[in-house]
Amino acid sequence: MAAGMYLEHYLDSIENLPFELQRNFQLMRDLDQRTEDLKAEIDKLATEYMSSARSLSSEEKLALLKQIQEAYGKCKEFGDDKVQLAMQTYEMVDKHIRRLDTDLARFEADLKEKQIESSDYDSSSSKGKKKGRTQKEKKAARARSKGKNSDEEAPKTAQKKLKLVRAVPLSGSILPVWG
Question: Which domains, ranges and CATH numbers included, belong to the chain?
Answer without folding.
Answer: 3-123 (1.20.120)
